[in-house]
Write a structure and sequence with these properties.
Layout lengths: L4 H7 L1 E8 L11 E2 L5 E7 L3 H17 L3 E7 L3 H13 L6 E5 H9 L7 H6 L10 H4 L11 E13 L1 H7 L9 H11 L10 E2 L3 H10 L17 H16 L13 H11 L5 E5 L18 H14 L5 H17 L2
Parallel strand pairs: 3-4, 3-5, 7-8
Antiparallel strand pairs: 1-5, 1-6, 2-3, 6-8
Helix pairs in contact: 1-9, 9-10, 9-12, 12-13
Length: about 350
């Protein structure tokens, strides 16, 4: 596991896409109008408290900018809840007009012909500029046949946020951290023996572990696309290292659970309140470039298996080999069923 840490920070981008025309075969539903005659469009989305407010400000500005459409928003606790409610809404023919989803969920719905092709609307909009989007994010919403099923709302790369005071106190130069082992060594140096201060806090979820594995040369599938590779040595080595740092060495900690994004803000607060040396988390909307998100041919089942495995490793102290072997078996069955 000798790859530079910067590789992990750039290798995997989570793209959040705004899909439109949700419903059975993506057919238009009955038009709803507001009291003042505007066409009402329903939008479902989720995000952290800051992101939700920013998104709502954008919607409010759009509503005030014209008198033809009124976008009505409904927020959910997190992206998973949005997707689950959207699936139920589609089944019950009560889906919104638009929803904010991550890339693999958007693509999965498109492959089932449950979201509209918005190319015709883009082509008719003289104010639309494709160049306003980073190509890697824009392409997340296109399929191999040219269908544009979503537009990117934002994309994020996992980066490291560090506690400057803690690093200075421990005599650590951030520029010297080139590998995950370097980060672990820094975390060990900062961790207090009485548990009052922990060296590092990876953000809860499979994202950071996946990024770290990819930086170690791991791959999701074999070159021929027929075998799921998530229990290879490249995966196990990295995930077992994090299990050791979290549970055996206790130089790292993962906050989990709570309502919606509670775990996220708990992690950030630990650093701000000088209880942790730093955390690995989202860059928000500050990315100036990115790389393609992992393409899961099973419609998300491989990534779901990895999420379950990540919880076992990070939260339950299950050996990485055991957790990833089980995940690989589940994922392989999903791939073979295609």
């Amino acid at each position: 596991m000798k790859k530079r840490i910067v590789s992990a920070l750039l290798v995997c981008v989570l793209g959040m896409s705004l899909v439109t025309g949700c419903g059975n075969n993506a057919k238009a539903a009955e038009t709803t109008k507001t009291a003042d005659g505007k066409i009402q469009l329903d939008l479902w989305y989720s995000g952290g408290k800051t992101a939700v407010n920013v998104f709502q400000d954008i919607v409010d500005a759009f509503n005030e900018s014209q008198d033809k459409y009124e976008v009505k928003t409904t927020t959910q606790a997190d992206y998973t809840e949005t997707y689950e409610k959207l699936q139920a809404g589609i089944a019950g023919k009560k889906a919104p007009d638009m929803a904010l989803l991550d890339t693999d969920k958007s693509r999965n719905l498109s492959e089932k012909n449950l979201v509209a092709d918005i190319n015709e609307y883009v082509e008719k909009d003289d104010s639309f500029e494709k160049d306003d989007y980073l190509p890697v994010f824009y392409e997340h919403g296109e399929d191999e046949n040219g269908k544009l099923f979503a537009l990117p709302a934002y994309g994020t790369t996992q980066v490291m946020y560090y506690n400057k005071a803690a690093f200075e106190k421990a005599g650590i130069d951030p520029a010297t951290i080139k590998t995950w082992q370097d980060l672990a060594a820094a975390a060990e140096k900062m961790t207090a023996s009485d548990g009052s201060f922990v060296g590092w806090e990876p953000m809860w979820g499979s994202g950071n572990l996946i990024d770290a594995a990819l930086s170690n040369g791991a791959s999701l599938l074999s070159e021929d696309g027929k075998k799921v590779m998530i229990n290879s040595d490249e995966w196990v080595e990295v995930w077992e290292s994090f299990r050791t740092w979290i549970h055996d060495d206790k130089i790292m900690k993962v906050n989990s659970g709570g309502q919606g994004w509670e775990y996220w803000y708990t992690t950030i607060d630990d650093v701000l309140q000088n209880k942790a040396g730093g955390y690995t988390g989202s860059s928000g909307d500050q990315a100036s470039h990115g790389t393609p998100a992992l393409q899961d041919p099973t419609g998300g089942k491989i990534l779901d298996a990895l999420s379950i495995a990540a919880d076992k490793v990070e939260l339950e102290n299950v050996p990485a080999q055991e957790a990833l072997d089980e995940a690989q078996k589940t994922a392989q069955e999903a791939l073979d069923a295609l």
